[in-house]
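Hypothesis: this fold can be encoded by more than one sequence.
Test: take the structure tokens below, design a sequence, compare later.
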């Protein structure tokens, strides 16, 4: 996962590096439900700064129309214990690929580059999740199949078991639609994928493997 950013004095990237837990938080200044989770993330990053150093990367991705307003807002809130980037919502490829239907939204990636959670921040205790992943543990919860939407109910991404037709190309459906008999009238067999998708990791530099994610984000400093 690489976010390419621009800031005064040069350019820089924030990226998922193998052996590092990565949390990406989508938010906006106008999104009231993002306020409490942002405060909690900021406090969490401060309290765990020493233990998580070089092991955990937390990034806030602001989706306001302008960077200036987000920068002022962050300063007023004193949410500066983790990194912040800005990209206008209509230019953010990450929204289409990972974010889902709304904000606030969190993506949590383990040390090997696998997305282990994507969804609303209120659904998880991220301090416990991150500590678990740092120690090479696994977190409980439904598998998340990024890049796969249900051809029955249109939910994206599919969570839990993902069923795919053995005869129809690129035809997938979720547990609920499978239980309700969706596509059963065809008599086609199905494959079931119970585990979450591992994001493809490619060697990029000596800094370690990275995963291609999105472009054109500005660092908020």
């Amino acid at each position: 996962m690489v976010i390419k950013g621009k800031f005064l004095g040069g350019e820089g990237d924030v990226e998922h590096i193998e052996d590092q837990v990565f949390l990406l938080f989508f938010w906006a200044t106008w999104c009231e439900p993002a306020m409490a989770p942002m405060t909690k993330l900021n406090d969490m990053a401060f309290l765990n700064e020493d233990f998580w150093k070089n092991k955990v990367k937390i990034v806030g991705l602001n989706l306001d129309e302008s960077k200036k307003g987000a920068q002022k807002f962050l300063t007023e809130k004193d949410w500066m214990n983790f990194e912040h980037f800005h990209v206008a919502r209509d230019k953010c490829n990450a929204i289409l690929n990972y974010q889902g239907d709304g904000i606030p939204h969190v993506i949590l990636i383990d040390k090997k580059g696998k997305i282990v959670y994507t969804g609303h921040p209120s659904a998880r205790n991220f301090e416990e999740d991150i500590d678990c992943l740092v120690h090479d543990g696994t977190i409980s919860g439904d598998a998340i199949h990024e890049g796969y939407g249900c051809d029955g109910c249109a939910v994206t991404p599919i969570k839990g078991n993902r069923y795919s037709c053995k005869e129809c190309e690129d035809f997938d459906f979720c547990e609920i639609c499978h239980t309700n008999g969706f596509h059963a009238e065809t008599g086609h067999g199905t494959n079931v994928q119970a585990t979450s998708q591992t994001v493809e990791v490619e060697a990029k530099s000596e800094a370690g493997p990275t995963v291609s994610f999105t472009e054109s984000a500005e660092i908020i400093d």
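DSSP finds six helices and 15 strands in the chain. Residues 35-47 form the longest helix (13 residues).
Hypothesis status: open.
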